[in-house]
Amino acid sequence: MLDFRRNPGGGSADVDAAGCHHPSVSTSTPLPKVGAPATRALTAAGYQFLEDLDGQSRTALLALHGVGPRAIRILDQALAELGLSLVD
After folding, report:
1. 17 and 52 belong to one structural domain
2. How many angstroms from the chain centroid is the CA of residue 61?
3. Which of 10, 41, 56, 82 could crosslink 64 through cysteines, CB 3.0-4.6 Å?
């Protein structure tokens, strides 16, 4: 079981049950500016970070109230910059 604690240097580190420190890997890119309704819909559906959208269906995202073609284009571009993508 992992226990998350702040390390003395101020950055965060994962500390496992044995007390070993493991540096945190940053996989929390904020969602790009897609508009307030789309952002609310995405976060309500559990997509807090851009990486959460990797491999998700464009059709399923478009079904969320507030997410339209413009938001999908912005998300596609932002994901591509990270080497990630949505699926059809």
Report:
1. no
2. 14
3. 41
What is the side-by-side strand order in the sheet with 12-15?
3-6, 12-15, 21-23
* Gap between the Cα atoms of 1 and 21, Å rounded: 13
Which of 33, 58, 63, 61 lies closest to 47, judged by CA? 61
Backbone phi and psi for residue 68, each to the nearest 5 degrees, phi listed first: -125, -175
Q: Give the C-alpha distances (Å, rounded to integers) separating 46 from 6, 30, 35.
A: 26, 13, 17
Instruction: State residue 77's pLDDT score.
Output: 98
Residue 50 within a domain: yes
Contact 50, 29 (CB under 8 A): yes
Same-domain pairing of 12 and 42: no
Range of the domain at 77: 36-81
- pLDDT tens for residues 10-43? 444 455 565 555 444 457 999 999 999 999 999 9
